[in-house]
Amino acid sequence: MSTRGDRHLLAMQQAKQLSELGARLKTIHVVTGMPPRQVQSLFFPDARTIPRGRAPDSPEWYHSANLILRTDACLIGAKYRQLRGQGLSAAESLILAYRAYQSATQMPSRISLDRAFNLVSYIDGIWLARAPTLTILVCPECGCEFLAAVGTVVRTGEACPFCKLLARFHIDHRLQASYPPRPAIDMTERQLGMVALSHVLSLDSTGDSPQK
Ligand SMILES: [Zn+2]
Fold first, then answer.
1. Does the pLDDT value for residue 88 go beyond 70?
2. Which among 120, 153, 166, 202 is most buried, taking Cβ atoms within 10 Å?
3. What is the C-alpha separation between 159 and 74, in angstroms, rounded?
4. CA–CA separation, 55 vs 24, rounded Å?
5. Ligand 1 midpoint to CA 141 (Å)
6. How far is the CA of 36 from the centre of ligand 1 (A)?
7. For residues 183 and 211, what is the distance between their CA atoms, to the nearest angstrom?
8. What is the per-residue DSSP string for 51-95?
9. What is the pTM of this model?
10. Are 36 and 26 in contact (CB under 8 A)?
11. 69 bridge partner residues
């Protein structure tokens, strides 16, 4: 049975972790319940370091995002879903899934913590969302888990961004530039590696405990 003090301490720890991952004050407030002014005074002593600009706010973003961003979103969503399935809280799952995403992809991260917060809100129907509008499906073609609108019927390769990514990879230079460079001779290995990435993220559930 956790005490009020335990819960307060946990909220503080999570607020610190979220601030280190680049979260906005509002995101930290919604996830931890801590008042934004308190978050600011504790973790952003220099007001110039507070993340600014328009927060990601569209639930439709995923469907119109480019292929690279969609596969990134899938990595985060699948990991989040897996951690939730293991009984972790939404806040813990968000933080760990985002860290797993960061460690599996190149910096700077293409998807911000605030965008990840937005995505998982719509997966679970929590925080920013009243009901789930995104779900995780398993592609019958490549076996990768991917995000789709709730109610999507799985058909071979059709909605799976990983299948599309692999199909386009050898001709799309912009896509190639977004992934770690390797000798061109390894093309097949790179393609397989990108599929493997999503599998790695859904298998190493114990390997990505908080780094700090
Ligand atoms: Zn697929």
1. yes
2. 120
3. 12
4. 8
5. 5
6. 41
7. 31
8. --SPPP--TTHHHHS-HHHHHHHHHHHHHHHHHHHTT--HHHHHH
9. 0.82
10. yes
11. none
